[in-house]
């Protein structure tokens, strides 16, 4: 099994207890309660600036959750993007996050990464196939394309960066190696975990690894996703190394 297959392995039923559904708002409340107890005992954490606060701090790989930050599926993406609705969704999401004492640092890929050029070409070919299918569907059916063909509208990354900065969210852009810079920022600044959808991050063993693909802000007031329990994945891998 290669690195590219690791995320599928994490998502599959192969590992008992390898992933569990979680509510990030509930986890944030737990972090705040532990911090309050530490304050009552008079003890101060000598670690990083984030581990000493009452906020759940997460690094988010924006490249892995463009559809989630866009607000889920809107049929208008095929027409160039529904930006007002995206900003409206982001405002609700970020307000919920900030009120619940969650701090986010969102990364976008600004690096050329010559060593990944073959992967980039393959991904662009897949996008081209989807676009051809979308145009054919619109021409023949005259209805919005199905969700499975969702493709990031042009300028989505630029609009997301502007909107997130407007909402006082830390936005960063990688310069050399995207994956290494994201995980390095997470560790060096003492963040509690990483939210992404790329098996390569699991190799770096982040403090906690949450799924960006399953991120969902519900009407009942929860922010749900999956957490990958990498210790269980490692146990299963040792049993079946292939």
From TrEMBL:
It comes from the Eukaryota. GO terms for cellular component: nucleus. Coiled coil: none annotated. PANTHER family: ASTEROID DOMAIN-CONTAINING PROTEIN (PTHR15976:SF16), CONSTITUTIVE COACTIVATOR OF PEROXISOME PROLIFERATOR-ACTIVATED RECEPTOR GAMMA (PTHR15976). This is Uncharacterized protein. Belongs to the constitutive coactivator of PPAR-gamma family. It comes from Diploptera punctata.
């Amino acid at each position: 099994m290669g690195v590219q297959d690791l995320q599928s392995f994490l998502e599959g039923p192969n590992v008992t207890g390898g992933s569990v559904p979680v509510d990030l708002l509930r986890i944030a409340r737990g972090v705040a309660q532990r911090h309050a107890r530490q304050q009552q005992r008079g003890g101060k954490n000598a670690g990083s600036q984030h581990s000493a606060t009452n906020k759940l701090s997460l690094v988010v790989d924006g490249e892995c959750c463009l559809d989630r930050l866009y607000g889920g599926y809107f049929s208008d993406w095929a027409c160039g993007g529904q930006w007002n609705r995206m900003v409206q969704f982001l405002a609700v999401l970020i307000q919920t996050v900030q009120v619940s004492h969650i701090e986010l640092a969102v990364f976008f890929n600004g690096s050329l990464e010559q060593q990944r050029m073959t992967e980039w070409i393959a991904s662009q070919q897949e996008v081209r196939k989807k676009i051809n299918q979308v145009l054919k569907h619109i021409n023949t059916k005259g209805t919005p394309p199905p969700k499975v063909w969702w493709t990031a509208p042009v300028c989505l990354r630029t609009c997301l960066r502007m909107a997130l900065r407007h909402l006082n969210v830390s936005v960063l852009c990688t310069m050399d190696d995207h994956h290494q810079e994201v995980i390095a920022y997470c560790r060096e600044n003492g963040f509690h975990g990483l939210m992404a959808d790329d098996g390569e991050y699991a190799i770096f063993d982040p403090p906690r690894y949450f799924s960006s693909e399953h991120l969902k802000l519900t009407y009942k007031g929860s922010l749900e996703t999956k957490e990958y329990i990498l210790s269980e994945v490692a146990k299963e891998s040792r049993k079946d190394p292939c």
